[in-house]
Amino acid sequence: MALLLRLLLLLPFADCGMEMKCPLTLERDWLDTFNYYRPGDHLIGGVISATRALFNPHKFNEPPSTSFYQKASTKYWQLLSFLFAIQDINQNPRLLPNITLGYSIHENFFDGRVTCESLLDLLSTGQANVPNYNFGGQNNLLAVLEGADTQNSIQISNMLGTYKIPQVSYAFVSHVLNDKRQFPFFYRMVPKEEALYPGIVKLLHHFRWTFIGLLAPDTDNGVRFMKTLTPVLIESGICVPISQIVKGGLNFAPINFLLFSKWKQVNLFVYYVDNIYVLNGIFFIELMYKLIKPIEGKVLITTAMWDISLELMYGGLSFQPIHGIFSFLIETNKQTNYGDFPALLFAIDEFVEEGFNCSYLKHALAVKGWARCRERENVEMLSQDDREGILSLDNHRIYNTVQAVAHSLNAADSSRSRQRVMDSLKIQKLQPWQLHPFLGNGQFYNSSKEGVYLDENGELAADLDIVNWVRFPNKSILGVKFGNIKRQGSPLRELTIDQDAIMWPKWFNQTLPPSRCVESCRPGFVKMVQEGKPLCCYDCIPCPEGTISSQDDAEHCTKCPENQHQNNDKDQCDPKVITFLTYEEHVGIVLSSFALFLSITTGFVLGIFITYKKTPIVKANNRDLSYILLFSLLLSFLSSFLFIGQPRKVNCLLQQTAFSIIFSVAVSSVLAKTITVVLAFLATKPGNRVRRWLGKTLTNSIVIACSSLQVVICTIWLGMSPPFPESDMHSQPQEIILQCNEGSVAMFYGSLGYMGFLAAICFTVAFLARKLPGSFNEAKLITFSMLVFCSVWVSFVPTYLSTKGKYMVAVQVFSILTSSAGLLGCIFLPKCYIILLRSDLNTKAYITTTKLEI
């Protein structure tokens, strides 16, 4: 099988002969301009992709052309980084002691034919490219470093695999090359692009870009990118209305013009970048927005993890529709000691001519026609800026890759030195296959690579810088770091963004371009997904009562704590106000003043009755009952003060029970007075036995009996479920109401019901006795007083139930005062009028005068 593969590799060149130029190769002299060689005990081969070029296609009717169709500027820093790494290793006495490391570097121009030519050069020992044939030279090639694209990397792997030569890649190529069954000798020195996807999602969420487009080249990698990233975005709540495949050159995939409306809405695109397709996405966006207007205000995030400055600089694009281009770079911690840094400009004549306006002669090497590298003492030293350029951005990867291979070579050599095979004092030559155990070790990846390591899955991970690429009017490109994604040794990523560091175009108004299906839901609202539409297309509905949302586009509303309430905007919780009926507020002042006034009035009336206790009108309707009634009314007015002020345990226990018992005594006294009036009239009839019932015994019995039953009810109430102070946090949304809980609602309404029952009996008896003859019939006064009393308490129940908080207390206090005032006014004010102002009527003759009304 190995022999067959070798024959297949040589088949295209079988007819070339030793001195012929193969039709698939380029002119030798021209190609040698871009090849760099330095001998050493061991060679590290390099296939550098630093210059992008297109060649004129071959035609069968004319000789093969070696001229460029197009050639972009060369990334000389990649070559210089490689050269400096080799020099640094050779000058390090602790690394590869007594071994000189050489190199053989070839530029492949991202072209498959040139890549094949370069590998044949590396694998051959003579001037002619014939692998497996020794022309007398010595091939001491141990490993090949390459930065080619995926297709060329696969081609390199297939050719090197025949000889088990390690292939170390510092380029971002497809994960297909990770398959050790197909590519057992391939080693990746950079993370896979899938490591970017969580970082891209975090970046989109940070700027609240949830309506985005995906662009990808028409390659297997591009299709895999679409299939892999789309579900990740959708799962994180990001909509992808546009997924566009972009073909190379001007041959774009068909455009769905029905999506033009979405192209106007989408301001953010994520573009999957292969090495050779960097500019296609930008060119496609420019083309689209020249067709559909507006053409400004777009942001492009690329998956490129390398320096794209030269592509942007020499791409010939206007960048008019682009707000900014964001990409990711592996974070580097450059602490390399440059030492005296001898001139590295040997062998790179074109760079010397362009950069320093000077030149020196080429020195050809007899073997293979390479330009011989020679360090010239008269060559000007590189400036500090140039030194930084060598190890800047992604070029630092090349330095680290060469260093890591050197450390593996050093480990292999150290291990071999302990097991030397002596043959005439000559050490056996180190073979390429002997490096594989050391290149496959995790230590290989961590050698000289800052911020790059193997994660828990054995895959490369890295801290990433987020870079904003800025294009200036002179077409120069600057990469500005404005963020960082840190792995911190775990799959979780920490995103850091310095939004002020982003450099927007001057014509831009310095606000972030929106990329959303709908406007953001402001705080106080919550997202409601519209039926049949993507998740990012939603309605905004206000948060329900008692809940808030404090950020834009909230997924759900948060319930406020019990002691807090939502503000008017429903975006934060404010502390609730503690409230109760106080003496300081208007309602409390009015009620307490009214209660004090009525208490004084009752005391004044009681004083009048005591002063004029021997007058006929005071003695007429049982003077003792009048005293009991006035005293109970005085206590009822004073009991209203128990309801005003902060509720406490004693207040709560006394409020309802004292009110119920005092009112029961008052109503019982009125009932006793009413019965006394009826019995007194009946006693005036001859032969009636009712006279013997008249006296203090009956009236006292009625008052005590009726009041005692209310006392029993209140005692049971206090024993079973007494009232207690509580904080009501739910009745009013913005208040914590301090109030007295009745304990047993049944007992509360039972005591009110019993009091109402007494009042109804009293009203009925008084109403029936209202037309009894007499100049001064007290039954009429009692009828009016009980009418007022019953009206107040009948209206009290619905009013009490319909109010909340301190106003419930105010309603009860108002009912107590008005009903008591009704009894006081209707029963006693007429008598006080006669006592004080009409003393002529305060006679026994007037009171006993009777006339029947028919």
Q: Topology, please?
A:
Elements: H1 2-10, H2 28-32, E1 35-38, E2 42-48, E3 53-55, E4 68-71, H3 76-90, E5 101-107, H4 112-123, E6 141-146, H5 150-161, E7 167-169, E8 186-188, H6 196-206, E9 211-217, H7 220-235, E10 239-246, H8 260-265, E11 268-271, H9 280-292, E12 298-302, H10 309-313, E13 322-330, H11 349-356, E14 371-372, H12 384-390, H13 395-417, H14 436-439, H15 442-446, E15 452-454, E16 460-462, E17 464-471, E18 477-486, E19 494-497, E20 525-529, E21 538-542, E22 547-548, E23 558-559, E24 564-566, E25 573-575, E26 577-579, H16 586-611, H17 616-620, H18 623-639, H19 649-683, H20 696-720, E27 724-728, E28 735-741, H21 745-768, H22 778-802, H23 806-837, H24 844-848
Parallel strand pairs: 1-14, 2-5, 2-6, 6-7, 7-8, 9-10, 9-11, 11-12, 12-13, 26-28
Antiparallel strand pairs: 1-5, 3-4, 13-17, 15-16, 17-18, 18-19, 20-21, 22-23, 24-25, 27-28
Task: Give a verbal description of the structure.
The chain has 854 residues and is an alpha/beta fold. Residues 1-30, 336-381, 421-426 and 850-854 have low confidence and may be disordered. Strands 10-9-11-12-13-17-18-19 form an eight-stranded mixed β-sheet, sandwiched between helices. A seven-stranded mixed β-sheet has the order 8-7-6-2-5-1-14, sandwiched between helices. The longest helix is centred in the C-terminal third of the chain and has 35 residues, at 649-683. Helix 16 runs parallel beside helix 23 (806-837) and helix 22 (778-802) runs antiparallel to helix 23 (806-837). Helix 9 links the parallel strand 11 (268-271) and strand 12 (298-302).
